[in-house]
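input
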Amino acid sequence: MKDEIEDIFRNNRSWAEKISLEEPDFFHRLSQIQNPEFLWIGCSDSRVPANQITGLLPGELFVHRNVGNIIQLNDINCMTAVKFAIEELKVANIIICGHYKCSAVKAVLDNSAEGLVKKWLEPLGLLYQKNKLEFADLSPEASHNKLCELNVKAQVNSLCRSNSVLDRWENNQALNIYGLIYDIQDGLLKDLQVSISSKDDLFEFQSTAYF
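output
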């Protein structure tokens, strides 16, 4: 077996042993039930590990990730994760998290994406084109950061239009959606002030947004 995969097994054994020493019953309890409080929808970037940056243990965070943390209502993968989290796991909080230094955002701004990646990033490209005037006087770094943040807000709007979310609110059941962004340079999360907890919140948000 190659050294690279051997390292994975070695690290896994060390991790499992450490957890078992600290909390002997941990894996037994974990095997009995899955009861996360949060659904995390984020980018696939290897520098943005959801559990580590939130300080949450296995079982506390249900995770869906893709390139660019993009939410499309016709994406069966994402919508299945959302539906399962809301209807089966009964999560009451959803975090949509983007990050600065995002390669997907850079590809849109540079117009460098090709093939499947270009197709996947079309919604992000359209978002940029619709708001292009807002970027006119910005430096490249400021433009990148602005599009990273705008993308999170657009994905919050997209998720709030999904049937699973709207049905939850129609039934007067609590569901909070938060838009956050992660700064790889300092390891900190930032609240983008786009928390949505009801259809009324959504209407107010949409009245001031440009998607």
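quick obs: The two ends are 50 Å apart (CA to CA).
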